[in-house]
Amino acid sequence: MSGAWLVVCLASSLMQDTDPKPQFKEKYFPQIIDHFNFNVMGNGTYEQRYLITDEYWKRGSGPIFFYTGNEGDIWEFALNSGFITELAAQQRALVIFAEHRYYGKSLPFGQDSFNIPEVGLLTVEQALADYAIMITELKQQLGASACPVIVFGGSYGGMLSVYMRLRYPNIVAGALAASAPILSTAGMGESKQFFQDVTSDFENYAPECRDAVRGAFQRLQDLAQMEDYGRIQSAFSLCKTPSSYKDIHQLNGLLRNAFTLMAMLDYPYSTHFMGSMPANPVKVACDTMLGGADLLHALKDTAGIVYNSTGDLTCFDLYTLYVECADPTGCGLGFNSLAWDYQACTEIEMCYESNNVSDMFPPMPFTEKHREQYCSKRWGVIPRPGWLKTQFWGDALSTASNIIFSNGDLDPWANGGVRSELNVFEEANDADPASVIKARKMESDTIAQWTVTVVKGCSIKYFNLDIYTNLKQVHSFIVNQVTLWHIL
Ligand SMILES: *[C@@H]1O[C@H](CO)[C@@H](O)[C@H](O)[C@H]1NC(C)=O
Ligand SMILES: *[C@@H]1O[C@H](CO)[C@@H](O)[C@H](O)[C@H]1NC(C)=O
Ligand SMILES: *[C@@H]1O[C@H](CO)[C@@H](O)[C@H](O)[C@H]1NC(C)=O
């Protein structure tokens, strides 16, 4: 899911921020290393990084917007959340971005953090406890004990926001979760869903695009079957000649990952990942796939959109550009990828596979059995399927409250999240175009009332941003909702 955090908060995809960037101060919080065992680490602490800005804050009474950091450097998230900044300015909120333990600079054991057993304190529960303690202590330090806390996050960070509200409702008044795959990561998804959704993004642009991709992978497979490794090397500008089934598997993984990233980052403006991704990468990819005379070269150039965005790549190095891990949707590179790999080996279930039937990629099975083998070899752990669902409720969320889920329909993570928990709000959502148009015309005071109804009438709010073509309306819903949580 590495690229997944880039599935920007509802936030930046919704509203291009026009405001100047807030001036975050970078700070460190002495955090308990082990919240759940009083003996092993005793009262030992580590330095947990967080960013804070009080430039919008109505001191002492404005709400606190707390970003539950996910799998990456906290600055990356803070600099990509224009919507939250805007909301904070309107609501006069204090804004805090907390870094997740074992990511960025928040390494409990420094360079040794990814050794066994040091890595063992990387769990969802420890991360939530970190946030709960940080919120509680910072509120005290800042004279903010009366200020309601609203947590927010995207992707895995969105899952954490939801969990914070479930686990620590005494501390958190509400949660705003964007593209949070809380069901699929709890083992309640379908293994083929993710790559099927990635495929749909390309197919929806042009069915021929899907066919071309499938055809190119087929050509590659034919060459591999003939063990024509020289042709494969030249067609894909590989640094080394592949020589085994393992190398071809790696090449397939690297290529598939390029499509995954482009689907996740399919925004109408350019984004940054390993250099920069062009605006509308799916379109760019399909134009490349369909423009080349030779399918294999077209496939290579399409992968280049991701791996060679700088134009500096002289050859593709199979094992450094992409690292296979317990998350078939990608772990990224560097330290952060180790942490995510470990999480995918323990609580977070990511058993997605491609099959060339419901998707356009070569069959690459990744079952619970594969996961177990990989994880016990890599980290000495056996995953516990079902544990996340047991702990964090799965889809049995009817007694939860004050959670907003948002999804973009093009986002391949959307189907792993909460889409079906319909309610008052969703009914309005389901309406025919005429009522949508009518709804759009609603005056803001009507909308304010309507959100109150929603809050009273049901617990889970779910947005389909694509039905809400009027972004201002969605925006206004969220603003009103957050105001309400603030007041309550
Ligand atoms: C841990 O506890 C000991 C004994 O009470 C105390 O001396 C020490 O300062 C504590 N360390 C931290 C980091 O709180
Ligand atoms: C994918 O499926 C198609 C049929 O839809 C088949 O012709 C092709 O050989 C398959 N490709 C691979 C790589 O398995
Ligand atoms: C990377 O892009 C540059 C500029 O488009 C191109 O000249 C080069 O051949 C590409 N590298 C590879 C390995 O395809």
Automatic annotation (TrEMBL):
<keyword id="KW-0732">Signal</keyword>
<keyword id="KW-0378">Hydrolase</keyword>
<protein>
    <recommendedName>
        <fullName>Dipeptidyl peptidase 2</fullName>
        <ecNumber>3.4.14.2</ecNumber>
    </recommendedName>
</protein>
<keyword id="KW-0968">Cytoplasmic vesicle</keyword>
<dbReference type="GO" id="GO:0006508">
    <property type="term" value="P:proteolysis"/>
</dbReference>
<dbReference type="GO" id="GO:0005576">
    <property type="term" value="C:extracellular region"/>
</dbReference>
<dbReference type="GO" id="GO:0070008">
    <property type="term" value="F:serine-type exopeptidase activity"/>
</dbReference>
<dbReference type="GO" id="GO:0008239">
    <property type="term" value="F:dipeptidyl-peptidase activity"/>
</dbReference>
<dbReference type="Pfam" id="PF05577">
    <property type="entry name" value="Peptidase_S28"/>
</dbReference>
<dbReference type="InterPro" id="IPR042269">
    <property type="entry name" value="Ser_carbopepase_S28_SKS"/>
</dbReference>
<dbReference type="InterPro" id="IPR029058">
    <property type="entry name" value="AB_hydrolase_fold"/>
</dbReference>
<comment type="subunit">
    <text>Homodimer.</text>
</comment>
<keyword id="KW-0645">Protease</keyword>
<keyword id="KW-0964">Secreted</keyword>
<keyword id="KW-0865">Zymogen</keyword>
<dbReference type="GO" id="GO:0031410">
    <property type="term" value="C:cytoplasmic vesicle"/>
</dbReference>
<comment type="similarity">
    <text>Belongs to the peptidase S28 family.</text>
</comment>
<keyword id="KW-0325">Glycoprotein</keyword>
<keyword id="KW-0458">Lysosome</keyword>
<feature type="signal peptide">
    <location>
        <begin position="1"/>
        <end position="20"/>
    </location>
</feature>
<dbReference type="GO" id="GO:0005764">
    <property type="term" value="C:lysosome"/>
</dbReference>
<comment type="function">
    <text>Plays an important role in the degradation of some oligopeptides.</text>
</comment>
<dbReference type="InterPro" id="IPR008758">
    <property type="entry name" value="Peptidase_S28"/>
</dbReference>
<keyword id="KW-0720">Serine protease</keyword>
